[in-house]
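Hi X.,

You mentioned you wanted examples for the new student's onboarding notes, showing what a folding record looks like when two proteins sit in one file. Here is a clean example. The first protein comes first, with its sequence line followed by its structure tokens.
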Amino acid sequence: MFVIEFPRRGKVTWKDGAITVESTPEDVPHDLEEAVRAVLEMEDVDLTVPSQVRHALLSMAGAQLVVDTSSHDGHGGNGRDSR
């Protein structure tokens, strides 16, 4: 599981091959979700591979990795809260 925050826009959580997008009230509705989905599709990301998802999302402007416990799935990560 990992969480990537986008200041003033929201956050994206990846867990078990699924992503959840939570926008802030300041974000235009679905703006962050649309951007995330577009990047994942454009980069042909396999949602079951956390390193691919993490890399794609961190390429987006303002992205900050705030939690990463994905080392437990065998695909990398440091297994620590990275705040």
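Then the second protein repeats the pattern, sequence line and then tokens:
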Amino acid sequence: MIRQTWLFAASESDGPPVSKSIHQLFEALPGVLRLEYGAISSRSTGQIRAAAILDVYFSDEDAMNAAYACAEGRRISREVMNNAAAVLDVLIIDNPDSMSDGSH
């Protein structure tokens, strides 16, 4: 499984850091297994400036690449990046469920 984590800056308005429209864009992305959104409520060091995180899960790297390579994926990517001021970083995490098998 692949988790793609999008870190978003605080909104310039008093609204949520990730607008409902961006969340809906990712819902329409082909091959997405699930989405998880979280607003950051506190920070221990203040080093991370993100105000929100959106995790997008795919079955594997091929599924993620195919999602963004298709016409709908390219359209969604363009729309998200039109809000690039809000995107701080994008992380790709391979096999986030590896700890669930009891190994440490």
